[in-house]
């Protein structure tokens, strides 16, 4: 591929939004630096990487569908070539989208998710974070629309180091809330301003929010014109009782079945390339080549009860001590 037209500097003099940090008084701003397609079972999504002038973290957005586009990504940058734009995943300048925000046909499904290295990357079953991320992405891929705003607020914003200490306190009998307090951290130290800015960048001001946490609903709408049109609960799959009418209404508005997933392949897609047979065959083929190939995805999406007892304790603490809207099943 001829890359000669990529401009030689990677530090293009970009507009004022892009410098880090400006002054303590600068108003918070973000910019989407790059967007890339990520293949995903049943299709693809677009990963968007943001920088901002408030912290040095790379906050992310996982976007399903072509309808949701980033204004700051598509903004023209000084001296950039069309190849530069392609490489950072921006639309060609001739169909510059920057001054014409797309109007979304309906309020998209949004998940505002905070990083959990333990639950998502190393598949800890101490919490439900890996499941929640996988499940929200599965639902969005079914709908071919939606955004996961992925905030780097590890451990409810206490960071991995302190969170691991909190784990040790939990192994001594404390729950997630008291463990944080013993370490002189708030039970939940997260903020949502960054998420508000990212949603604004996608021209999203109303949404269906996937969460059990009323505090999150309140904070995402605080001092902003963002409206949560509806809250979609996130019942852990191993807590779902298919005979419970309310549980079956869990995903009202989403064309998907909330019952535990028995066969991922049939749940995914119905387009020619993605028939259940095609997916099942591909899955089996991939498994025979490398049994681990799909294990992380599958484990998160289909957690089985026997391995989840620590996550049950975690969820019960969220319901009883943090006000999360979760019906605790009979154990
Ligand atoms: N401090 C601490 N944080 C944890 C622990 N387990 C998971 N987390 C963090 O908790 C965050 C997820 O928050 P949760 O309270 O599970 O859920 P939520 O996002 O508030 O609510 P939902 O939207 O319903 O998922 C992530 O940042 C995890 O890293 C823990 O034991 N201690």
What is the CATH superfamily label? GTP cyclohydrolase II
Shape: globular
- What radius of gyration results from the CA coordinates? 21 Å
Instruction: Please give the number of β-strands.
Output: 7
Number of domains: 1
Give the H and E element order: EEEHHEHHEHHHHEHEHHHHH
CATH architecture label: 3-Layer(aba) Sandwich
Strand content: 15-25%
What kind of sheet is the major sheet? 7 strands, mixed
Helical amount: 25-40%
Query: Which strand order spans the largest sheet, edge to edge or round the barrel?
Result: 1-2-3-5-4-6-7
| Mean pLDDT, all residues | 80
Bound molecules: guanosine-5'-triphosphate
CATH topology heading: Rossmann fold
**Tally of contiguous helical segments:** 14
Structural class: alpha/beta
Given as residue ranges, the uncertain stretches (5+ residues, pLDDT < 50) are 8-20, 251-274, 289-295
The span between the termini is 59 Å
Level-1 CATH class name: Alpha Beta
Domain GTP cyclohydrolase II: 34-232
GO biological process, one term: riboflavin biosynthetic process
Organism: Smittium simulii
Enzyme class: hydrolase
